[in-house]
Design brief:
The complex is a heterodimer. Chain A is an all-alpha fold. Chain A has helices at about 1-20, 25-35, 35-55, 60-85, 95-110, 115-140, 145-165, 180, 190-210, 210-220, 225-230, 235-260, 270-280, 290-310, 315-350. Chain A starts with a helix and ends with a helix. By secondary structure, chain B is mostly helical. Chain B is globular, with a radius of gyration of 21 Å. The chains are: A mainly alpha, B mainly alpha.
């Protein structure tokens, strides 16, 4: 979007400056296509698949590829509302702790004999409540999102740690196991992947096809301008935080059901991974930029990178380093391209108006 | 006359440092009522000793927050520099301890510079930069140590004496805390660079217009934060006589907490080092009081999160109150 805008500006600049004719439309268009973040990511993803297929005979196998989805579906679900949060210039580093709290609540209820459906409701409700708690402090009291969620990161996980100490809940009913372990019908497609697909379509629709989504973009570009044009900025940010909590609740249901136990340190460090997915997907932390399909590609890219590296016997710590580097590179490259572009623009202007 | 004097008293009480001191007094009294013997001189020096590292790293965090950023990587820098220094000490016991200390500190400086470069010149937001390097440095610690620990009997006595030694009856670690506090207080309050950090955090645009280089300041504050974390990494491993891979994980919250409790605005531009020191001491007392009043250490995380949220709430409400007072005064 912004690239196209840039090009259009440059074109009019050329025309006004010296009546030059636009002679490079096809070439420029191709360059534009390949400097699009989503396209770059997709190419990288294809390259990754080819690479791992050559490196390991177990990689390109329908059953394995589907099963690998179990390892990233929960984070993928959490990344969806995080797009809205980051897009509008906020951040939430408490999502992993919300999982801990929601999982703790479910474990507690399960110990009291609640069945699967009730557990799901509890997980979702706790997630939603925690998200609203964050949203209240950020929007009603006007506190910075990073500070509030840094505090609730400890607060939420602290609750489950204070009660559970070094114990764990491990008794979950049979009816609860489907959400994280089930497959669709007789296929090998994980139910978790279906949940993600449905939610991705829903959130993609909201972000790209509704006024709510346009408002989120507008807030990200300028909170003041959005407010002056009549957008209820704080209400939308509050809803974003509530959604973020709710989706963390969904992820908590999936994860707890999949591993069948709750410890206070469940999902530790996932905040960073979820934010990495969103930023790698091309969403700018300074707001207003990015698309949901870009984030979906980033999810697949990172998910199968980990799966492939796991097959190659790389340790989890190497993957953590890789994720961290990817996060930084994902922000550095567009910044660098912007700087180059700004430089070129300056030079062109100087050439036209000596 | 009379109203002037009450206004003056009110102003003093409104100062964060004073109200924190009162709060600390009340806290000490409350704990001592439950557990006599808590507020003894010996225990006090133990608490200050325990808190010295927190004070040093919090001061680094203070500079970063003051300029409108945040440094989430301090815990990982502590772990990496502490592990590197301990492994050097283990492999080459002949190298004097202060050289090992210097090496660990320089490593911290370099890691801080990496953060600073990414923020200042790569234009990566501080939160993203340090979120990334938090993982990278922590991962590097594992890779460096291959998952192994360095334990007490693998460290030299002179290494462990870096914090444990005594000078004039006060432990070296406390002296380090005092030295760092004094130097950094001078830097923040009596130098041009210090004023520039306040300026950038207060109003970025205005500061740039009067010629403050934002890049220079950003690079500087992350370097300072790295320096203090590196120094603290060595002190940490020597004090607890163990370098493990999880050293100081989650410590970043405590440093932010010390700042927020000390009245530093998380949005940048206001706060001072004395407040940060008192904030760190407040946390130190609470951590030390938990076992004394029979509360399990598992409550620590919850209590810290709660305190941070509460302190921020007070900061926000008092800032709002001040704004209202200012508006009222203008209307009159």
């Amino acid at each position: 979007m912004s690239d196209l805008h840039d090009l259009q500006n440059r074109k009019t600049g050329l025309v006004q400056g010296s009546r030059l004719v636009d002679e490079s439309s096809l070439r420029e268009r191709l360059i534009l296509l390949f400097t699009k973040w989503e396209v770059l990511l997709s190419l990288l993803f294809v390259f990754e698949i080819v690479l791992f297929t050559n490196l390991s005979p177990y990689f390109f196998d329908y059953f394995n590829l589907m099963n690998a989805a179990f390892t990233f579906s929960e984070k993928a679900v959490m990344a969806l509302p995080m797009i809205f949060i980051i897009m509008s210039g906020d951040i939430d580093i408490s999502v992993a702790s919300i999982i801990s709290l929601a999982s703790f609540a479910m474990g507690n209820a399960a110990a009291g004999g609640a069945d699967g459906a009730v557990l799901v409701l509890i997980g979702l409700a706790v997630g939603l409540g925690a998200g609203m708690f964050n949203g209240f402090f950020v929007t009603r009291l006007g506190m910075p999102a990073i500070a509030v969620t840094l505090a609730t990161q400890s607060l939420f996980r602290g609750i489950s740690q204070a009660v559970l100490e070094d114990q764990a809940y491990t008794k979950y009913p049979e009816s609860f196991s489907f959400f994280g372990q089930g497959y669709i019908g007789n296929t090998v497609i994980p139910f978790e992947l279906l949940i993600f697909a449905v939610l991705a379509l829903l959130m993609g629709f909201i972000l790209h096809k509704t006024t709510y989504g346009r408002k989120v973009y507008a807030i990200g570009n300028s909170k003041e301008a959005a407010r002056f044009s009549g957008i209820a900025v704080d209400r939308i940010r509050f809803i974003n935080f509530a959604l973020n909590g709710l989706f963390s609740g969904i992820a908590a249901v999936m994860l707890t059901s999949r591993i069948g136990s709750t410890r206070p340190n469940i999902a530790l460090g996932w905040d960073m991974e979820v934010i990495t997915l969103v930023v790698l997907g091309g969403v700018s932390i300074s707001g207003g930029k990015g698309t949901l399909p870009g984030v979906v590609v980033a999810i697949l890219l990172l998910g199968y990178l980990k799966f492939g590296m796991g097959l190659m016997n790389y340790s989890a710590k190497v993957m953590v380093i890789t994720t961290g580097i990817l996060l930084l590179v994902a922000v550095l490259i567009p910044n660098f391209l912007d700087m180059v572009k700004a430089n070129r623009k300056l030079k062109m202007q100087q050439a036209l108006n000596p | 006359m009379h109203t002037n004097r009450t206004a003056a008293v009110k102003n003093i009480l409104r100062k964060r440092e004073v109200s924190l001191l009162v709060l600390i007094g009340v806290l000490l009294l409350a704990v001592t009522l439950r557990a006599p013997g808590f507020a003894t001189g010996q225990n006090a020096s133990r608490i200050i000793n325990d808190t010295s590292i927190l004070i040093m790293v919090s001061i680094g965090q203070f500079f970063v927050i003051l300029a409108g950023g945040i440094d989430l990587s301090v815990g990982s820098i502590i772990a990496f520099s502490g592990m590197a220094a301990s492994m050097l000490n283990q492999a080459q016991p002949g190298i004097p301890a202060f050289v090992v200390l210097l090496v660990g500190t320089v490593i911290g400086v370099l890691l801080g510079m990496l953060n600073g470069t990414l923020v200042a010149f790569g234009k990566v937001p501080a939160i993203i930069t340090t979120l990334g390097t938090m993982s990278i440095f922590r991962g590097m610690t594992f890779v460096l140590s291959k998952g192994q620990w360095v334990t007490a009997h693998e460290m030299t006595q002179s290494y462990m004496n870096l914090p444990h030694g005594n000078f004039l009856g006060v432990s070296n670690l406390i002296w380090w805390g005092v030295l760092v506090s004094a130097v950094m207080l001078t830097l923040s309050s009596y130098t041009k660079s210090g004023r520039e950090i306040y300026a950038i955090g207060g109003n970025r645009t205005a500061a740039k217009f009067v010629g403050v280089s934002e890049k220079k300041i950003q690079f500087m504050i992350f370097t300072i934060s790295g320096l203090l974390s590196g120094l603290s990494g060595v002190m940490w491993t020597a004090r607890y006589a163990a370098a493990v891979n999880e050293t100081a994980s989650g410590f970043e919250l405590q440093t932010v907490a010390a700042c927020v409790i000390g009245g530093v605005s998380i949005a940048g531009g206001s706060g001072a080092i004395p407040g940060v020191i008192l904030g760190a001491l407040f946390l130190g007392i609470i951590n030390n009081a938990l076992p004394v009043i029979n509360l399990s250490p598992f409550y620590q995380m919850f209590i810290q999160g709660f305190i941070v949220l509460f302190a921020m709430l007070i900061n926000t409400l008092s800032a709002r109150h001040n704004e209202k007072m200012l508006l009222n005064r203008r209307r009159q």
